């Protein structure tokens, strides 16, 4: 049995804040569960050092901060 699927696929990139919530749970965990339950080939969550979005507000991690709203990127491979 091969772990690799053959055929066309697209990469889905989702950018959110680390502290974002959905129904009282961490948003990136909820998104990962959704992707897994819907048959996506895999997904990875990466915490960024710095970034900004449409609001142009800079989010950056400082060494002395214990909590932050660091940018989080979720990458997933979706077979089409």
Keywords:
80 residues, two-stranded antiparallel ribbon, 14% helix, mainly beta, three-stranded antiparallel β-sheet
Brief summary:
The chain has 80 residues and is mainly beta. It is 14% helix and 42% strand.
What does it look like?
The chain is mainly beta and 80 residues long. Helix content is 14%, strand content 42%. It has one helix at residues 27-37; strands spanning 9-17, 21-22, 25-26, 42-47, 50-52, 58-60, 71-79. It has a 3-stranded antiparallel sheet, covered by helices on one side. It has a two-stranded antiparallel sheet with strand order 2-3. A two-stranded antiparallel sheet has the order 5-6. β5 and β6 (58-60) form a beta hairpin. It starts with 8 loop residues before the first strand and ends with a strand.
In angstroms, what separates the terminal alpha carbons? 21 Å
Q: Helical residue percent?
A: 10-25%
Question: What is the average per-residue confidence, as pLDDT, rounded to a whole number?
Answer: 80
The proportion of strand residues reads: 35-45%
Total helices: the number is 1
Read across the widest sheet, the strand sequence of neighbours is 1-7-4
User: How many whole angstroms does the radius of gyration measure?
Assistant: 15 Å
Runs in which pLDDT lies below 50 for 5 or more consecutive residues are none
Largest sheet: number of strands, sense, barrel closure: 3 strands, antiparallel
Helix/strand structural class: mainly beta
H-E order: EEEHEEEE
Shape: globular
Number of strands: 7
């Amino acid at each position: 049995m091969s772990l690799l699927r053959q055929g066309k696929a697209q990469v889905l990139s989702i950018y959110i804040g680390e502290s974002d919530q959905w129904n009282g749970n961490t948003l990136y965990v909820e998104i990962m569960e959704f992707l897994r339950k819907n048959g996506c080939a895999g997904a990875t969550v990466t915490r960024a050092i710095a970034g900004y979005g449409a609001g142009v507000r800079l989010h950056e991690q400082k060494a002395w901060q214990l909590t932050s709203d660091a940018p989080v990127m979720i990458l997933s491979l979706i077979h089409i």
